[in-house]
Amino acid sequence: MAVGALAALLVLGATPASAHPLGNFTVNTYSGLRVQPDRVVIDLVVDMAEIPTFQARPEVDADGDGAVGEAEASRYATASCGEAATRISVAVGGRAAAVRSLSAGVTFPPGAAGLPTMRLTCALAAATGTIGGDEQIVFRNAYYVERVGWREVTAVGDRATLVSSDVSPRSISDRLTAYPDDLLQSPPDQRSATVRARPGGPPAPDVADTALPPAAPRRGLDGATRAFTDLVARQHLGVAFGSVAVALSVALGALHALAPGHGKTIMAAYLVAERGTLGQAAVIALTVTLTHTLGVLVLAVVLTGSTQLAPESLYPWLGVVSGLLVTAIGMGLVRRALRARSHQVPRLGTSSPTPAKAGGGGHDALALAHGHAHAEHGPAAALVHEHGAHAHAHAHLAVDGGRVRWRTLVPMGLAGGMVPSPSALVVLLGAIAVGRAWFGVVLVLAYGLGMAATLTGAGLLLVRARGAIERRMARMRTARLAWLTHALPLATATAITAGGLFLAARAAYQL
């Protein structure tokens, strides 16, 4: 109760500006065109989230002392805007115009886990020569197109009149300072603009850069993620705080796993279809935790040594592999369920019951191995035990599926933990940035344990529910209900296969 209360306080009291609204991987660009009679001025803004900013740290902090001075920031901004000028093209009437950098600046707004974000501003200009009559101007921006994020282009006339334009004159994100909530899941991807302009018109107002305003505090699962990433940003680390932080990481990981996804439904269906036990669910939980933690560690090491890798490009591939792994497990369960349905439950008193096929592992084989016989009462069967001169029956339904095979537990856990949590990755990178890599590893491991507890808990709840339903159906002896238990292994195996295909297809769509 104490840990829960502390978690609630930490979630509700999360700092406002602690995470990028578009996610920790994004690099977002805005290009504001001002068409003048003799040139096109380009207001370029690049808004980097925590992880790409972390990757750029070696370039920004040239002397490696952990602090970015004014001279270092100025050198980085000038070099970056110069590179941006080479990646932007402007053509007037089919003639290319050279683009050069006029001024540059960079700031580092605070982000999640004590990591900064980065805001680069560049004033660029393309010398078009005097625009005469009615000229077509084509603009293209190829800067950071390999990274996921928000891309926006606007165009206005500045002592020139735009006759036509395929982009808006106004930024819907206020130059990447206020992202609309309804577009966060499907941000714009504008990389070019085509306008027609003629000289003459009112001047456009000057553009003054603004700092990123404080974000509104987020509640619920977003607040839980923010609370987790804020744990590593504390300046003073003591035994008491460290212990509470680990406990909160477990709780927040469990809360985070309640969000859509994470394979809860598939893992629960697997445990139900295969009659999983507490120990077997624990194996899945442990595998999920270790796989998740190892994935975060490996990715953090790679990002620490690489400035070019786009980590968001790895996630779809991991999703495809995870989905295909689940599909393979589901197809194996389908085959086992079909084999089990081919077995006939022997009637009481028969002298030669049908032997179970090798590898079937169903209840029939288990009963025969222990000298049990099945009394059939319609589709629902009662398991009869003979003890000396008397026999008694325990109501139990005949089961078509087999028992859990341990060699499939680990692959199921791998599938559940293969895609590392971005928030866990941010926590580890934040710990590395402040020289507490070991603390980040502990928090990530605790977070993974919390996630695994929720995932397997969902499956165990369904396992218990299935047992209660089977006992009730066995007492009812109702053929109309008993068929459900016989059909359940095949149905859940089919659902697992379909779920794996869906996960793989969804990840492949993002490639």
Structural class: alpha+beta
The strand count comes to 13
Q: What spatial form do the alpha-carbon principal axes imply?
A: elongated
Low-confidence stretches: 1-18, 211-221, 344-402
Radius of gyration: 31 Å
Number of discrete domains: 3
The N- and C-terminal alpha carbons lie at a distance of 43 Å
Strand content: 15-25%
What's the number of helices? 13
Q: Mean of residue pLDDT?
A: 74
Which strand order do you get reading across the main beta sheet?
A: 5-6-2-1-8
What level of helicity do the residues show? Answer: 40-55%
Order of helices and strands: HEEHHEEEEEEEEHHHHHHEEEHHHH
Characterize the largest beta sheet: strand count, sense, and whether it forms a barrel.
5 strands, mixed
